[in-house]
Amino acid sequence: MAHDIQIITEAELRGIVKLDLTTVDVIEAAFAALARGGVVMPPIMSMELEAMHGEVDAKTAFIPGFDSFALKVSTGFYGNAKLGLPSLNGLMVLFSAKTGRVEAVLLDNGYLTDVRTAAAGAVAARHLAPEVVETAGVIGTGLQARLQAEAAHLVRPFTRVLVHGRDMEKARACAADLARSLGIGAEAVDDPASLVAESQLVITTTPAREPVLKAEWLHPGLHVTAMGSDADYKNEIDPAALSRADSYVCDRVSQCESLGELRTALATGLWTGGTPAELGEVITGQKPGRRSPDAITISDLTGTGVQDTAIATHVRARFPKAGTIIRA
Amino acid sequence: MAHDIQIITEAELRGIVKLDLTTVDVIEAAFAALARGGVVMPPIMSMELEAMHGEVDAKTAFIPGFDSFALKVSTGFYGNAKLGLPSLNGLMVLFSAKTGRVEAVLLDNGYLTDVRTAAAGAVAARHLAPEVVETAGVIGTGLQARLQAEAAHLVRPFTRVLVHGRDMEKARACAADLARSLGIGAEAVDDPASLVAESQLVITTTPAREPVLKAEWLHPGLHVTAMGSDADYKNEIDPAALSRADSYVCDRVSQCESLGELRTALATGLWTGGTPAELGEVITGQKPGRRSPDAITISDLTGTGVQDTAIATHVRARFPKAGTIIRA
């Protein structure tokens, strides 16, 4: 019983899905749906391939009211650089939520993951950052450092961005790219403490296993989005910082407990806040977000299956003619 | 950095992959690899969609020495019959084991799963059934009842097959299909006890939640393959039967404990045999299989990611020109 399946390549997806406010709204709606309940989101399936210096993650989520659900596979093979290939790859498969049949295969090589991850940062900034952000700081110098800064700029059009990384050369390259893409002042800075001191919005985008942001650097009127930790051995934020903030908000509590900043804070006994709020609950107003301009807020993003389902469903609904149709 | 991705449809796959001895050998090699160690096979990712009367399973496995690994998604949506669609669907995605990039998308709508599942039954029969099987019995009347009988016939060319199901009409239809496909005598039988008594090889292929095969029916010179249970609420074999058999062999112990016949036997305290053998260990000779013509053997098949990786890798290696190439 053959049916039409839409196959869309990375190049085609880059042409139709951008990191813009439309995409931010799509991801915001996904988090809101998560808070409204009825979402089915199993734990991430992970496979560590030590022999290949690789890892594989699969995520999925069913969202009530959505016509489709995605299953996304991300691969990270860290020997690829030597072959001149990107480390991160993958695809998304979209299934009918009514019949379970494959509707689309998005051969994005990780592009949609990059976009939906950055868009979640914008959603966090929209709901938690101070209304006025003049200076944003980024700790980390990879692709997400660039995309997170661009995403945050969509909702908080700061006029200056600071970049810190262990490798100052990479920090300068990242700052130069952001100066160009955002048309604002951008500087690489040596000292992360001063980066935080000068910023109203800080994004950490590193694979750090030891904190890169100390609790004593927190200051009134600061929002921090920690998006680097997505594994049970990563940690970007000083565990003492979470309870020191006025609001600490998870993308998904169950994931942050095992893969995010909350893991270390719980393990060290430094988290004393009970069950944290989730980003979706802040969006829907079920839980408070920022309570005052001077508040300190932290959001912890581990990456959720609802983001994948939301962006993949959006692609199919908005671009039904894109790509190649294969009858299978 | 676009690369070529092979897209193969169900119709194309049906033309190139058959349930034959080649496929049985491919699946046997997968189980042998599992026993040799170094396989990485995370727990199955499962999503129950009660509202849609549906379920989604994802399986994957990395096998050392294989150029690729598959991630397979199976969907079962039990309202599809009303829409005139098959309940079971899905696809397999093949990734490079060296770079993690997508190499092929096998849009099989579950066909390869059907074949690799049946082939595992043939592997179990090859290594555990008596050398001579004159009569085989099948309890269950669905697609796997037919495929399992056909697969077992490849390795034990029995001359008569008996079929039992709760619905005698379906049992007669299944027997008629098998008479045609195997060119042997086939009968539907009302009484499962007499089916077992007359058979040297019995295959259970039901979604039963209560045993369909009783321990007291076991007789010398019998092999039973229980392939129906793949969920923590299913149970086909009387839990007392497992310890009564001379050999009880799992496809994967960790899966049979939670999803197979071993689950109920452990829960009822009726399993007293310690850690069971795995099928791969019997294939490689690490553990004994059938010890004598009169022995009673049971194999418990829950379905493993190595089977998916093996069949998908086989397709790509043997049929590199099949399907459509998409540059993505």
Automatic annotation (TrEMBL), chains A, B:
InterPro entries: NAD(P)-bd_dom_sf, ODC_Mu_crystall, ODC_N. NCBIfam families: PRK08291.1. Pfam families: OCD_Mu_crystall (PF02423). It comes from Albidovulum salinarum. This is Cyclodeaminase.
